[in-house]
Amino acid sequence: MDVIILPGPEAVGSHAANLIAQRAAANPEMVLGIATGSSPLGTYRELALLRAQGQATLDRVRCFALDEYVGLPDGHPASYAVVVADEVTTPLGLDPANVHIPDGSAVDIHQACLDYEQALTGAGGVDLQILGIGTNGHIGFNEPISSLASRTRIKALSAQTRRDNARFFSSGDAVPTHCITQGLGTIMDAQEILLVAQGPSKAEAVAAAIEGPVASMCPASLLQFHPRVTVLLDEDAASQLTLTDYYRFVTDAKPLLIGEGQ
Ligand code: GLP
Predict the structure, then answer these.
(1) Within-domain flag for 259
(2) In this predicted structure, what is the pLDDT of residue 256?
(3) Contact 61, 30 (CB under 8 A)
(4) Is residue 11 part of a domain?
(5) Does 261 reside within a domain?
(6) Rounded (5°) CA angle 115-120-122
(7) Could you identify the atom of ligand 1 that is nearest to the CA of residue 141?
(8) Pocket of ligand 1 (CB under 6 A)
(9) Fewer Cβ atoms within 10 A, N terminus or C terminus of the chain?
(10) Residue range of the domain that includes 56
C-alpha cells in the first residue's frame, strides 16, 4: 500500500487525476470504477481540466459505479445516476453507453445485482477503482460487518451513513434506507485501487483502515490484503496515522514509482 500525504484537498484531486490520466493513456479502454460522494469530486474536476488541456484522453474509457440508492424516483438529484452524469460522464466526455450504474429502481433487485456482477465480468473487470471512505470505514456502501467476501447486493444503510449523507437530501428522513452496492469481494477484484480522503472527519476511519487490524468493523481495512493500493490523503485525513514519517520517507524516496509499487 502506498500512502501519500499531500498538503490539501486540491493536491489530492490533482494527484489522483494525473494517476488516472496516466493509466488511461496506457490503456485507453480501461474499466474505471467510479465512486460518488464528495471525496472524488475534486479528482473528477481536475481530470476534466486535464482533458480540456489535451492531457487526458478518456473517450473510450468504460465506467462502473460502486453503488446506488434503492427506490429514488428517476432523475432525483441525489441519485448516483444523476450525480455520475453531472460530475463524471458529461465533464469527462465519456460515452453514456459506457457508463454503468446499479439499477436502484429495478423491480427485481436481486436480479439487478446479479446482472451488474455479470456486466462487470463481461467487461473484463475493473482496471482502476476509485474509492472514498465513509466516516465509519465503509467503502462503496459496505457498512461495518459487511462480509469481506460480499458481492453486489442490496444493503441497509447505517444510521451514521444516513446522517452523513443527509446533506444531499431535503431532510434526514428523505435519505433512502437501502442501496445496491458492489461487495467487498467485488471491489477487491479490481486490478488497482485508488482511495482518496480529505478532511478531519475521515481521520479516524483512515487510521483504522491503514494501520488497524483487518476487520469487518472497518470494511476499508480489507484493502490491506490488496496488492496494489494507493491512498491519497490531505494532512487532516492523515492526522491520526502513526507512521506518517515513514509514509513521507517512502514517497520521497521513490517519486517516479508513485502508484506503481507497494
Ligand atoms: C458515500 C458513498 C461512498 C463514499 C462515502 C464517503 O455515501 N457511497 O462511495 O466513498 O460514502 O462519502 P463522502 O465522500 O461524501 O464523504
Answers:
(1) no
(2) 53
(3) yes
(4) yes
(5) no
(6) 90
(7) 8
(8) 35-39, 66-67, 132-134, 140-141, 161, 165
(9) C
(10) 2-253
Q: Active-site positions?
A: 67, 136, 138, 143
The CATH number of whichever domain residue 216 belongs to comes to 3.40.50.1360
Helix axes 9-26, 41-52, angle to 10 degrees: 60
| Amino acid at site 237 | A
Ligand 1 test: best mutation among 164, 182, 187, 233, most atoms within 8 Å of CB? Answer: 164
Amino acid at 194: L
Write the residue with the smallest CA distance to atom 1 of ligand 1.
Answer: 37
Q: Whose CA is nearest to atom 2 of ligand 1?
A: 37
Whole-angstrom distance, CA of residue 71 vs CA of residue 189: 28
Cell 457508463 belongs to residue = 99
State residue 101 phi and psi, 5-degree precision. -135, 140
Residue 229: strand pairing partners: 193
**Total domains, the chain:** 1
In a domain, 262, yes or no: no
Distance between CA atoms of residues 192 and 181, nearest Å: 19
pLDDT in tens, 210-260: 999 999 999 999 999 999 999 999 999 999 999 999 999 999 987 655 545
Residue 261: the pLDDT is 45
For residue 161, give the ligand 1 atom closest to its CA. 7
User: Rounded to whole angstroms, how far apart are CA atoms 180 and 104?
Assistant: 6
Ligand 1 nearest-atom number relative to CA 80: 8
User: What does the pLDDT read at residue 254?
Assistant: 76
**CA–CA gap between residue 30 and residue 17 (Å, rounded):** 15
Chain position carrying cell 435519505: 175
Q: Which tens digits make up the pLDDT trace of 19-65?
A: 999 999 999 999 999 999 999 999 999 999 999 999 999 999 999 99
